[in-house]
Amino acid sequence: MISVILQIFGILFILSIAVGGYLVYHLVHFWKQICQEVQHETGLDTPSRLTLMETNNPAWGQHAALKKTLSELRAMGFQPAGTYDVWEMSHLYIVGMVHPEDYLYATVYMLSEEQLWTDLCSEQVGGENLTVSNVSTVGTLDDIPGHRQLSDPTWGIMDLYDCIKAERGKGPFKDIEAADFKAEFEHAYAVEMDWRNSQGGVPTWEEFIRIAKQTDTTLTETKLQTAYYETVYQKGVLRLSDECVATFCTETTLTVPEWEVIRETCFALHEHVPNSHLANFVADHLYGLDNDHIEDLKQVINPALPAIENFEQFNETLPEHLQAIKLGDVDTPVQAEIFAVPLRPDSLDVSAS
Question: pTM for the whole thing?
């Protein structure tokens, strides 16, 4: 259902078709930034959850291309299912529609009035989910198990309708009522993101290269490697770390004053931090370490061990006043151990957290 919405990965990763267009759109801009040596300033993240906020008569709803698309859907029997801003993505707007007779639902996306695309989705009860879309990219990401997507940027609304009716197979199909659209969309996004996060939260190198081949870029192998490294670090390592810390904030038994003392110093080492990024991550979070410490870490990293074990072994070798302090662990959005840098009062007892 979310098909192209997972594009939300900004420079991260066009989740299925869901991410298709949006990611490629931002990835192209990211690559351009790299060429200008400012690749680190991309700025868009892909949250693990989205919240749709229904809005009545928004200004963006008057966009001519959007009004034309909605008119075509209504002419085919689709009924309104809400107009939404996205809490986590201020420049992404969504209109939902349902077709009660054909058991179809449509999601129309508008990105800052610059891009517009439509998904039609059908869900077999106990079977395959199919999304057809006119987003501008095709086949760049591996499909999530149980989900199939077809896309062609030249397809109009009738083309999308004909395609999904021909390709979705036999029913029975899930019936989504207009009142259920928000909850179904948010759930579908969460399922997709949970699967993507379980793979590390970023595209594989193979997916990344497929994205590159669908653009006009002439970036060298070195620049592509740099872009991919930054993608993994910014949109996988750091994004998931921030979300794990946010989860810990809701679960910790620390008092509010205790949490306020350390919250800005907390970080999460999660199960998907690659060893290749560990030294960079440690340098960014353990502020008291100098270059010699980071070079020592690079020398002792064992590629056969997960990054968290390499970090813990390294952390134990540090002088006590430089060691990160373990606060606890979380399982959401991925498994992670939570640490704080040693900049807290000695009286703070985190052992019970």
Answer: 0.76
Distance CA 250, CA 252 (A): 6
For residue 204, the model assigns a pLDDT of 86
44 and 129 in a common domain = yes
Tell which of 208, 241, 256 closes a domain: 208
Residue 80 preceded by cis peptide, ω within 30:
no
Residues β-bridged to residue 133 = 119, 151
Q: Residue 232's domain spans which residues? A: 221-340
Residues 46 and 180 in one domain: yes
Q: pLDDT digits over 252-287, tens only?
A: 998 988 888 898 899 999 999 999 999 999 999 998
The number of domains in the chain is 2
In this prediction, residue 202 carries a pLDDT of 84
Instruction: Identify which of 127, 121, 109 has the alpha carbon closest to the alpha carbon of residue 165.
Output: 121
Contact 308, 279 (CB under 8 A): no
Q: Between the CA atoms of 108, 63, 156 and 203, what dihedral angle is there, to the nearest 10 degrees?
A: -50
Q: Is residue 213 a part of any domain in this protein? A: no
Nearest partner of 184 among 176, 196, 195, judged by Cα: 176
Q: What is the dihedral of CA 274, 196, 152, 30, to 10 degrees?
A: -40
